[in-house]
Each structure stands twice: as C-alpha cells, then as structure tokens.
Structure to design on (286 residues):
C-alpha cells in the first residue's frame, strides 16, 4: 500500500511554482548553416493559444542565453514564445580571449564589437533560432530584440548601412534595440536611414558607449525615416547594464517591459499604440 504524504500548503505552492517554471523554459542546442550549434533558452508562452508570436533575444558581447531573462519572462507572460540566443563567437569565453589578446577590457570589447566575423556568426544563430521556432508552427509575428552588441545586431538585421559590408536576412516584423549605436567605426553617418521596418530604441541617461554618452545612441533614431511607428525612449538614470537586467535594475526593467510590449502589441494590431506614460521616461515617436 502506498502512503501519500500531504505537503504543507506553502511547500505545495513552491513545488508547483518550480515545476511550472521548469515546463515553461527549456534549453537546447540547434544546428546552424555552417554545422556549428547554437545554444537557446526558450520561454514558452504562459497561456498558449494557437501559434504564439515569436521574439528572439540577442545579448551583448560576453553574454549568453541566460541574459535578458527579465524580458524573456515578461514576454512569456504576455503570450509570446521568447528565445534567448547564446552567441558562441561573441560569448564569455570569446570575450575573455579578446581581452587577454588586447591587454585590456575596453580594447577587448572593441575588438569583438567591430569584428565582422562575429556578426556573421550571430546572423547564423538568429536564422537557426527562427527556423527552429517556425518548424514548430507557422509564426504569425516575429520580433528581434537585442542589447548592446545585440542592439548593433538588431540594427544590422533591420538594414542599417555599415562599413564592413555586412548583410543579414532580416525579414522580422519589428525590431527592438536596447542601447543602440550611433556613428562609429562600424556605422557611418546616418547608417540607420536605410531601415524600413518598425524599430524601437531604448537608452538611459547613464547609458554610455564606446563612442559617447546616451546622446550618441540617440543619433541612430534621428537618422530613421518617418512613418513606421519608430520610437525612442530615454529612461532617466538607466545604465548600460541596467538595460540588460544587471545591477540595481528593477526600476529600469519596470520601464522597459511596458515600452516593449505596448509597442509590439500595437504593431500586431496594425496600429501605432501610444507609449505608456511613465515618470522619468521620455518618449518620441516618428
């Protein structure tokens, strides 16, 4: 005879929460065009109804598939299938090699961020993730979201001009760049003027980069042609790492999530939805 042990209410809820979280996320490796594998972390929609919209998350230099968790979880709760991508050629081990080779953190980051081969690998990672999702069902709407080097990847996928002659497949319905890049060694002046798909750019007043402070980042938005519901949001006090969900990032995360989900929901409904009003957040729409 099997005896059943009744768990205390609190413990039962904890077990359920852990089991639900396990089912809602899965890690896997998929093959890309060159035969190498790409590491993925999949956040399944909390309440699936048919084939969900797809959001791919591209982390910054030195990141992995566990980065941007706050966005993966928020999009999952909103009904999306969100997939965080581990870019091997620009991940933690690769960044450490560049830092050691160049004898400095900033030099190592610069070497990686301006390396055309790293972006070609990222393009293959993104294609592999998108193909995996599309093999499961016919995806009705796709978005590419990236932070830092991932934002540069977003800009390139969206069609920004660049000095390395990089061209990606693109084809996403919407793009989100957290910490976009303005003019620098990779992007010429007005590089983003060739982007024709809707793009949301988010930065913070403490979000400095390799070529300047946050105002340098806003130059990317200035170059965009009007008429696509393109949007720029500047969050007071938000740092570069805060936008990635690192450090004391709670207030930044609370600002970013509704900015992203409201804008994407509007595009899915074929409207340019008004941005949510939030204290300390300045928003401009083209």
């Amino acid at each position: 005879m099997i005896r059943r042990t009744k768990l205390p209410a609190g413990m039962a809820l904890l077990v359920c929460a852990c089991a639900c979280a396990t089912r809602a996320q899965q890690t896997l490796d998929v093959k890309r065009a060159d035969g190498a594998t790409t590491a993925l972390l999949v956040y399944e929609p909390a309440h699936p109804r048919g084939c969900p919209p797809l959001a791919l998350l591209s982390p910054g230099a030195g990141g992995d598939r566990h980065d941007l968790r706050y966005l993966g979880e928020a999009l999952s709760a909103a009904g999306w299938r969100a997939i965080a991508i581990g870019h091997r050629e620009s991940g933690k081990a690769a960044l450490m090699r560049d830092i050691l080779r160049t004898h400095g953190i900033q030099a190592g980051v610069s070497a990686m961020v301006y390396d055309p081969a790293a972006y070609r690998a990222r393009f293959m990672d993104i294609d592999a993730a998108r193909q995996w999702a599309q093999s499961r069902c016919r995806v009705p709407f796709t978005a590419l979201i990236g932070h830092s080097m991932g934002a540069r990847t977003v800009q390139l996928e969206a069609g920004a001009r660049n000095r390395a002659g990089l061209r990606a497949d693109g084809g996403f319905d919407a793009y989100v760049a957290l910490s976009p890049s303005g003019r620098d060694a990779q992007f010429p002046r007005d590089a983003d003027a060739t982007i024709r798909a809707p793009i949301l750019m988010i930065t913070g007043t403490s979000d400095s980069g390799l070529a300047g402070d946050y105002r340098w980042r806003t130059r990317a938005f200035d170059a965009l042609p009007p008429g696509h519901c393109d949007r720029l949001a500047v969050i007071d006090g938000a740092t570069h790492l805060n936008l990635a969900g690192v450090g004391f990032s709670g207030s930044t995360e609370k600002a970013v999530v509704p900015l992203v989900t409201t804008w994407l929901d509007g595009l899915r409904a074929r409207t340019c939805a008004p941005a949510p009003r939030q204290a300390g957040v300045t928003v401009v729409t083209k």
Remarks:
- Confidence is low (pLDDT under 50) at residues 1-23.
- The first strand starts at residue 25 and ends at 31.
